Amino acid sequence: MGTGVGTSIGKPGVKPGANPGSGSGKKPGGSADGGSAGRRARTARYDEKLNAVLSASSALFASKGYERASIRDVSRATGMSLAGLYYYFSSKEELLYLIQYRAFESICEELRKIIKREADPQVCLHAMIKMHFDYFIRNMNDLEICSREIEALKGEFYRKVADKRKEYFDLTQSIFDRIIDTAGGASADSRLAALYLFGTLNWIYQWYRPGRDPDAGEMARQLSGIYLQGVPRAGEVTSA
Amino acid sequence: MGTGVGTSIGKPGVKPGANPGSGSGKKPGGSADGGSAGRRARTARYDEKLNAVLSASSALFASKGYERASIRDVSRATGMSLAGLYYYFSSKEELLYLIQYRAFESICEELRKIIKREADPQVCLHAMIKMHFDYFIRNMNDLEICSREIEALKGEFYRKVADKRKEYFDLTQSIFDRIIDTAGGASADSRLAALYLFGTLNWIYQWYRPGRDPDAGEMARQLSGIYLQGVPRAGEVTSA
DNA sequence: AGTATTCGAACGGACGTTCGAACGATTCTT
DNA sequence: AAGAATCGTTCGAACGTCCGTTCGAATACT
């Protein structure tokens, strides 16, 4: 903040000096950027249009992949001109950043609520998994991008998203910590358990098809059943 | 095979007619291409150099991603000229195909051996997971590419790799089928269980670091423990 | 009038791929 | 054994295309 240079990106009309691929990418603004604050939402129209752009980009990035989807594709999908798009973001990378950051921010908030609400750690794990499946089904494109395009961001963009992802992970691991505290000494390691679970959750976009596969409730029941009792007894009820 | 047109790709010196991005991509040769057969391994020198090219490409694709890594990067990494590389493959896509196909082919073979060897389904699941971790640690780049770049292939290339992947999946699901047959009626669904496990296995490249994390044996013990008894009892011994 | 938003047109660069010529080794002919 | 022909292998240079981004002017809104 001291220099006053490059502290205000993402705001309409502000195009920072050209840093063609070289610089270390210190783009995102100072505080809570990526959410709704910090973007100077002058008009409701601006916010609506930005959301439309993000939604179209999300669908495109999800179906073609971030690298293969071009800004020209986004232009075609939104009906906006190539140059007009750059009024809403200052680089393709920021576009990806906004999608990822917002998704992690909102799913983190939902998880925090659950942890606050559920005292029993086993019930809490089930609620967490159920919430993740629900969120996934409501926002398949965003979560697919959060899983698949982790390494497409660099510099500050990467760091900010990585922090949010770590928050989501730490919250999940804390649930396993409590499960393991309750159980005896023959439990799994909480970090590994959380990593294993994250693999499963980050992979569902690869195979889940809404019509064919079970709904979120059934999927969560089976998965939490496995993690709490193993595959052979996954269907038994845990607690009253 | 009937037309005699485009039936022999991947062989040195054979450049099929230009189909710039449009055609449906019916490139891979008739039978068991992608392995060692079908590529007309005239000389040992050719095979060695091809393996060097594949290995360098694998490292590049793994670290930068398939799209971001360019043929010029491969050229730089191998010391060969841009044009010289095309003596060993006919397109960048075929390069990716060869890496993926060979990896799936060899890991499928290892899994078939395990299933033939282990009569107890629970021991078999543990052996499968252990084998996968071992294979991953020995071939991190290849498996990362198999997990991350699934959708980069199209047409026949995609189909051939998808078939191999399905074989690996079906073999794994068959293990869960036997586990569930043995157990009572409160088990998980075998297809879901296999999909959940695949998520975990396909995600390890995102976090596993050889020095920091447990070795393959310990990781397999914990993961199979979870799938057989759940997190709270993952450390208990299953059978004698 | 003044600000917010959109656009057509272009720039420079990176990409995958190809072409024809050359090099090196092996084989064939004499 | 010598020279020519063949084949496998490598290369420099270029082609055409697509990309992300920018500029200054034009339009819409308040």
Q: What would you say this structure looks like, in words?
A:
2 copies of one chain form a homodimer. With about 240 residues, chain A is mostly helical. The first copy, chain A, contains 9 helices and no strands. In chain A, helix 1 (about 45-65) packs across helix 4 (about 90-115), helix 5 packs across helix 6 and helix 5 packs antiparallel against helix 7 (about 155-180). The longest helix of chain A is centred in the C-terminal third of the chain and has 28 residues, at about 155-180. Chain A is elongated, with a radius of gyration of 20 Å. At the A-B interface, helix 7, helix 8 and helix 9 of A face helix 7, helix 8 and helix 9 of B. The structure holds a DNA duplex (30 and 30 nucleotides).
Estimated radius of gyration of chain A: 20 Å
Q: Which shape of chain A, going by the Cα principal axes?
A: elongated
Characterize the largest beta sheet of chain A: strand count, sense, and whether it forms a barrel. Answer: none
Count of DSSP H/I helices of chain A: 9
Structural class of chain A: mainly alpha
> How far apart lie the N and C ends of chain A?
54 Å
Stretches of chain A where pLDDT is under 50 for at least 5 consecutive residues are 1-11, 13-32
Secondary-structure element order of chain A, N to C? HHHHHHHHH
Mean pLDDT of chain A: 86
